[in-house]
Amino acid sequence: MAKAGKPAAKRGARQTKLAKIGAGELLTLIDFVRYAVSRFAEAELVFAHGTTDPVAEAAFLVCEALHLHPDQFETFATARVTAAEGRKILDLIGRRVMTRKPAAYLVNKIYMRGLPFYVDERTIVPRSFIGELLDQHFGGDGDEEAGSLISEPRAVESVLDLCTGSGCLAILASRNFPNAEIDAVDISKDALEVAARNVGNYGLQDRLTLYRGDLFEPLGGKRYDLIISNPPYVDADGMAGLPRECRAEPKLALDGGTDGLDIVRRILDEAAAHLNPQGGLLCEIGRCRPQLEATYPQLPLLWLDTEDSEGEVFWIAAADL
Ligand SMILES: C[S@@+](CC[C@H](N)C(=O)[O-])C[C@H]1O[C@@H](n2cnc3c(N)ncnc32)[C@H](O)[C@@H]1O
């Protein structure tokens, strides 16, 4: 039975507060990063939303509090912060530990391929490997040896981003395919509001159109040179064991049904009817490769790796579908 006095929830919240830091105990950016890393380790946080380790996560939060791009961290690592800046950083560290929300939700920002995108809890925190693959394999600034899966990116006239969420992949694609009209679809009104904000921030309203609906349904019979998609693909076991950080994200963005492939199967089954003959489909499926290959043994799926992933994204040419 709870003791009389403060309500139990309030007492619990007070217990999880971080210990007070005395004035002058932490001075430089790197001091605050070290402190944050210790608190993050103590709280056993999970890092899967734009950063994959506590140091990068701490550096990201410190930079955001100081209005610095993460690439500028090293330049200023040993610079001192003001008292007001220090309070702001400590507040972010405290909120990250106590709420367990992804850092991107706390600062309403995420970087992909070095570009900033607005994000909030109406949509998943962008972290798709497709951004890197667009640069590597589709005429971006990446690995020349990797070759291009589309012979002339400037000749690409139409791109579809299915399950667009915050619109990040559609916006990145607009840079790889400078002459393309881009369509982007999501079933979530909330996500599309975030996407519209990002499209506006990048001034792409005239070239990028957002549609609300179920996969290809709002597009009629329209065909594209390229379809990209990072659909929901977490299987039932994965959904049951999601870390708290991921439970802050919309379930609709993650849940791929029993084996994770409910949406992916529909995309594969319907893509041929929406691709031009020389086009192709680039699709992320997480760890579902074994199930997918067992379901479609006849399809010559080309698996593309990135710095942090192996066999989580496939490419298939329209002619092979
Ligand atoms: C994994 S998130 C990807 C978001 C974004 N493309 C990214 O990479 O950050 C999947 C998105 O698919 C959307 N979605 C789920 N089911 C859908 C459906 N049947 N049709 C269209 N979009 C759907 C969700 O609302 C969510 O925004």
Automatic annotation (TrEMBL):
Main enzyme class: transferase
Give every Methyltransferase small domain span: 156-235
Record's GO cellular component terms: cytosol; ribosome
Ribosomal protein as UniProt keyword: yes
PROSITE patterns (UniProt xref): N6_MTASE
UniProt keyword Ribosomal protein present: yes
Q: Which GO terms describe its molecular function?
A: nucleic acid binding; protein-glutamine N-methyltransferase activity
E.C. number, please? 2.1.1.298
Q: Which domain of life is it from?
A: Bacteria
Keywords, in A-Z order: Methyltransferase, Ribonucleoprotein, Ribosomal protein, S-adenosyl-L-methionine, Transferase
GO terms under biological process: methylation
Protein name per the record:
50S ribosomal protein L3 N(5)-glutamine methyltransferase
Record organism = Bradyrhizobium archetypum
Q: What is the lineage of its organism?
A: Bacteria, Pseudomonadati, Pseudomonadota, Alphaproteobacteria, Hyphomicrobiales
